[in-house]
Specification:
With 66 residues, this protein is of the alpha+beta class. The protein has helices at 44-49, 54-64; strands at 4-6, 14-15, 34-36. The chain has one domain. A 3-stranded antiparallel sheet has the order 2-1-3, with no helix packed on it. A hairpin with a 7-residue loop joins strand 1 and strand 2. The protein is globular, with a radius of gyration of 11 Å. The protein starts with a strand and ends with a helix. The structure holds zinc ion (2 copies). One zinc ion is lined by residues 4, 6, 36, 38, 43, 46.
């Protein structure tokens, strides 16, 4: 998996190119995504780096799909 960009806000926004979060309601919306180098698509180290609660992120992803 290539390096990719993930929203630091934990909304689940992900991109192959550096861009800004556009998720409605995300506290990091309109801010740049952070670069992630994970290979399993779970962004574990990335979320740890930014002190994000992975369980909370997964819940956010679920609520986003409503
Ligand atoms: Zn976001
Ligand atoms: Zn990742």
């Amino acid at each position: 998996m290539k390096p990719h960009f993930v929203c630091i806000g934990g909304c689940g926004k992900m991109s192959e190119t550096q861009t800004k979060c556009n998720s409605i309601g995300c506290w990091r919306a309109r801010n740049p995504l952070g670069e992630c180098f994970c290979t399993d698509n779970k962004h574990t180290d990335f979320y740890t780096q930014y002190n994000l609660d992975i369980e909370k992120v997964e819940k956010l992803n679920i609520s986003n799909s409503d």
